[in-house]
Design a protein that fits this description.
By secondary structure, this protein is mainly beta. It contains no helices and 4 strands. The radius of gyration is 27 Å and the shape is rod-shaped.
Length: 102
Amino acid sequence: VYFTPLRTSDSGRYRCSVDISQTDINYQDVFYESFTISTTIPTPEVVVTTDPPDLGTLVEGTYIDLVCAVTINDAVNTDVDVIIEWSRNGGSPLSNSSDYFI
């Protein structure tokens, strides 16, 4: 069995059985070999960028754009929920306001 690509839905217990018989020497045997495939979802890539890219001292009245992007591997064939929230100083999640929008 060749998996291309291996997916999380391929997880499970697989068994190979071989039945060998040779009548001229009166021989017969059955062999079993089994194993389990466990798959995990690849870790998503999270990238945070800023515009402008240099976060030195910013001047009041200018702008800054903070971007949080998540990339999930194409091989993932299960439902993945992604929730991105911004907060400031450990507070509650930010929502749109007159000063910024999410």
